[in-house]
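Example 3.2
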Amino acid sequence: MDTGPAFLDSRDFGRIARAIRFIDANFRAQPRLAAIAASAHLSEFHFNRLFRRWAGVTPRQYLAYVTARAARAALASTPSVLEAAYCVGLSGPSRLHDLMVTLEAVTPGELKARGRGMQITYGITDTPFGRALLASTPRGLCHLAFIEPGTERACVAALAASWPQARLRRDEDAAAAVAGRVWGSSRGAACARAAPPLKLAVKGTNFQLKVWQALPWPVARARAARGRRARATAAGDMSPRQHFGPQGSGGVKRRVCQFPHV
């Protein structure tokens, strides 16, 4: 029986794909880690590490992401925040409030009102992965999109369409400061010292999932592959695992999400 790296990688990929399908199908039951791990026929400890390796986030973070995505749709289609919470399997409005503030930096009410009464500060700045549009509320990062050349105006229009009732204020310095806090520039570090510290849960989960959502998988693969080839060439080693990496694009997203300053 083949137990080489390629076989093990394909088997692990199949397990994580099965777990992702399980979460997508059962998120309204808010399954515990043990149940998700059982769907992949793995122990909780091994499954948690393997999922993060391939998907770039933990199973709990992915479950929260899927729930929040469904909650956005529910808030748009149901008459109340209470009904939206029940629709996505949460026990009540307080849990929905915590989820949306943590992941989206907005309350369910603000989301349902499409930003009425909110001010969103946005700007376009450089990041290690290219130009990006970052938008923030006082609670944290509410929007992040990586921008291809010539699409800046369309990306800003998409942000405005997402929050038609909000007041949008452009501030490139503020966007650069947020990016600096995420990716650790000296400018961001100075802003972090001057600003009140962000809550840990918001910094970790919010920033990680925003980048995880925004970074296109093909772009991530290409950029990471270039970096691996450059490092391997410098080291004089171009083995297949260094050239392509055992983790695929999920591994790329894992590295993106492990911010030392978040």
